[in-house]
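Subject: Sanity check before I submit

Could someone independently write out the structure tokens for this chain? I want to compare against mine line by line before I put it in a report. The sequence has 134 residues.
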Amino acid sequence: MIRLLLNILWFIMGGWISGLLWLLAGAVLAITIVGLPYTAAAWRIAGFAFWPFGKEIVSREIVTGKHDLGTGPLGFLLNVIWFILGGWYIALSHLLIAAAEAVTIIGIPFAIKDFQLAIIALAPIGREVVVVRR
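---
Independent answer below. Compare away.
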């Protein structure tokens, strides 16, 4: 019940904007052809940005139990390119928002989720969003 309440508050207070921007980024990346490897990652992040409570970001290797292109050297190279071309400033924006949210006690759970968005914005390739069952 708490997760639902937090997700609703998150969505109303700006999660919908964050999610839409990540969807738009994925669409722009898909149009460029060169950005296709990043499209799925941006859309995964969008799903997390819309409704983050009850979800965690983990390495895809943990989920599948094996290496794939995204968790190996190619994924590392794609993450380096992503970081240089845009990941660092997207992560910085999420960190600044997290700092503003952390000022109040009520904002701390939201700051934690924005911090997680900042981490995945740095290197999204080879990561997966999973639902936490507790």
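---
OP: Matches mine. For the report I'm noting this point. The helical segments are 2-31, 36-50, 60-64, 73-101, 108-122.
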